Fold this sequence. Notes:
By secondary structure, this protein is α+β, with helices and mostly antiparallel strands.
Amino acid sequence: MTRSIVVVGGGITGLVSAYLAAKEGKRVTIVESAPKIGGLLNTFEIGGSQLEFFYHHFFTHDAELSWLLDELDLKKEVLYKKTTMGVFRKSRTWDFNTPFDLLRFKPISWIGKVRFVLTTLFLTKVAQWRSYEYVPAYAWFRKWAGKSATQALWGPMLEVKFGPYFDKIPLAWMIGRLRQRMNSRKSGDERLGYLKGSLSVLCDRLSERLVEMGVDIRANSPLTEIEMNGNSIARIHTGSGTVEGDQYLFTLPTVHLGKIKGLPATVKERIDNTEYFGVYCTILSLKRSLSDVYWLNVADGGFAFGGVIEHTNLVPATEYNGQNLVYLSRYFAHSEDISSWSKDKVEEVMVSDLKRIYPDLKDEEINSVHLFRSNTAAMVNDLNFSAKVPSCQTIIPNMFLCNMAHIYPDERSVNNSIRIAAEAIMTMGMDGQSVPKNLSLSGKIGFLNS
Ligand SMILES: Cc1cc2nc3c(=O)[nH]c(=O)nc-3n(C[C@H](O)[C@H](O)[C@H](O)COP(=O)(O)OP(=O)(O)OC[C@H]3O[C@@H](n4cnc5c(N)ncnc54)[C@H](O)[C@@H]3O)c2cc1C
């Protein structure tokens, strides 16, 4: 008899899991709480095109993503472009792309530059992440990269991304992050990719394919209750009715799953110690470009955002009727004040802070401001996080988990979501082998054979 699979959460992890299960001939139902599938990949219309709520680019080595694009006949639609990075420090912007840029970067002393290069090489080429799960990145940088490199670069980067957790993030995470970025470089140049038309093209094509394969996609159907029969899930209840299956894969954020009625206590205990960072992305549509830098890290303190990402330095402004689009991003812990700011306040403070970086930016050059927020933007990967990663196969035989926790110590990404979806499918006894496995530090935490 054909087994039926229920996937909870219609983000990319859930959609790809459903796709792999449907390819195996399973009857699949996806339940998604939002009116639209896509989760963090959702988009809105601007300048006649779609744009992600949250900045998204791909890396040249994203093999799993490349596989999916190929499956959906979208591979030719990805544009790769050389992009540039800068650092705002000591009230000015410094290019930060080549060894010459490092030589010119005055906030780091000469000795600090040597230590910066040696420690970066060590982290990207030599260090084994397992040995650094207990080692806080901040303290390690302070000791080995030195005071000036930590003050000018690593410290601000950790503070702005992790807020109150800045000194609790393990070096293991930093190893994953740096390797992801370095592997996208060729002779020093970083090339990043973007799907023409936005990620809505991928989500739409994937959902069309799923429907053709007979997958029942139920949007506006938040999971509200898990009903057990002995030691197995009998059915789940959603805002739009009851769904039954043989196996259930939960891809929604664990903070949401933890609150669901009927969730077995043993599973709840396992996931209740995981936390998420939220994020604000304020998108500005401008009449002109701010600079030629794609990604500007703000390393001076006292700014409401940590990154200025000029999207139209990756994708031409002509795609948006000539509008220049800039993301201002700020991750936050839910205990931070900023997490309770009103929409108006976030927009106002961010725009005014942007004018501190670009003092010649005039109000009349701003066409519009759009604010997007997610409360589950990234997981708090604190010290020894691998011990917190819940097993994909839970103690309940027909209950499986797959979410951002399973990506650690790699950086969460679309590519890595596809990878963990394949791992979950294999853990559920199906075939996920068609998905290639590219560079990954862990690949297997929480899955079979880990
Ligand atoms: C600011 C930002 C920038 C990023 N930049 C990049 C980038 O440049 N490149 C890259 O590759 N990746 C990037 N990412 C990461 C990427 O977006 C994520 O890794 C990926 O989208 C996670 O997918 P997911 O399906 O695991 O989670 P989600 O997208 O969060 O999906 C979970 C789904 O579960 C649903 N759900 C929640 N509660 C319920 C419920 N009760 N019942 C049913 N459904 C429920 C949600 O609505 C959601 O659709 C970025 C993310 C953010 C936030």
